[in-house]
């Protein structure tokens, strides 16, 4: 596992999920004056892990979390852990399923990344691959937006997405990208080992990565706006993958 810089997990539900998981936590910050029942579970879990609990004024929490909506709770974490590609395959193998991965090509908005992680967890995605440069990493905003899903979906951070795509193909994974001229996504059969490639919010998938995709998918649109938010588009595609892998009545 690889680690990144110190950060904070903020919000009550993300804090509970992190305390229940194996996330390495240094300290728990609780806003002074909060009702006991609102944070009872957080305090109980923190005490069970013998963590330092610091009661601080709201102004201190605002400063620590860069004035985000912390709901009176912040966990100081040593680092966010990034998985290796092998960990993603191991996750699928552990569940006795063919791999279902996401490759996110230079996604920049932490809210989009957090939302995609949340959908990925709900749909049984085995892991997410993001690039090391020119893309958002695992930040406190991502963790909060994922509402705890970050603790359950391994995220690998790689130096070169194109090289990683070739490695996946060598290991029997079929890559499906998104493009205006692709096949209707409702026809996508995601059986077998697959990776879904989601492009940057503005530029889409880079040309080199697109060349390594086995097939392109498109989301038909009949309205006036001919584009979707990256996390919304990803959600539709992820659940088409889920639908084909887990059809009704089976």
List keywords for this structure.
4-stranded mixed beta sheet, 6-stranded parallel beta sheet, 9 helices, alpha/beta, 12 strands, about 25% strand, about 250 residues
Describe what you observe in this structure.
With 250 residues, the protein is α/β, with parallel strands linked by helices. The chain contains 9 helices and 12 strands. The radius of gyration is 19 Å and the shape is elongated.
Q: In sequence order, what are the helices and strands, one letter per element?
A: EEHEHEHEEHEHEHEHEEHEH
Alpha-carbon Rg, integer: 19 Å
Average residue-wise pLDDT: 89
- Poorly predicted sequence stretches spanning 5 or more consecutive residues: 1-5
- Helix tally equals 9
Q: How would you describe the oligomerization state of the chains in this entry?
A: single chain
Q: Which percent bin holds the helix content?
A: 25-40%
Structural class: alpha/beta
Straight-line distance between termini: 36 Å
Strand content: 15-25%
């Amino acid at each position: 596992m690889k680690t990144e810089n110190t950060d904070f997990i903020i919000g009550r539900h993300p804090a509970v999920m992190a305390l229940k998981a194996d996330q390495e936590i240094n300290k728990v910050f609780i806003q002074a004056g909060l009702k006991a029942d609102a944070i009872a579970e957080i305090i109980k879990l923190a005490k069970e892990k013998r963590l330092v609990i610091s009661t601080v004024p709201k102004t201190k929490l605002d400063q620590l979390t860069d004035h985000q909506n912390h709901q009176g709770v912040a966990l100081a974490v040593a680092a966010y852990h990034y998985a290796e590609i092998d960990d993603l395959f191991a996750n699928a193998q552990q569940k006795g399923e063919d791999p279902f991965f996401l490759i996110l090509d230079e996604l920049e908005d932490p809210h989009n990344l957090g939302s995609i992680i949340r959908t990925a967890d709900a749909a049984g995605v085995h892991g997410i691959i993001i690039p090391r440069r020119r893309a958002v990493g695992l930040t406190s905003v991502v963790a909060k937006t994922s509402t705890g899903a970050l603790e359950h979906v391994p995220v690998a951070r790689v130096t070169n997405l194109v090289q990683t795509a070739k490695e996946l193909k060598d290991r029997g994974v079929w890559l499906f990208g998104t493009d205006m001229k692709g096949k209707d996504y409702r026809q996508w059969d995601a059986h077998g080992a697959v990776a879904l490639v989601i492009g940057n919010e503005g530029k889409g998938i880079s040309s080199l990565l697109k060349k390594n995709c086995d097939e392109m998918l498109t989301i038909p649109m009949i309205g006036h706006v001919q584009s979707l938010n990256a996390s919304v588009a990803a959600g539709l595609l992820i659940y088409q993958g889920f639908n084909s892998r887990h059809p009704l009545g089976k």
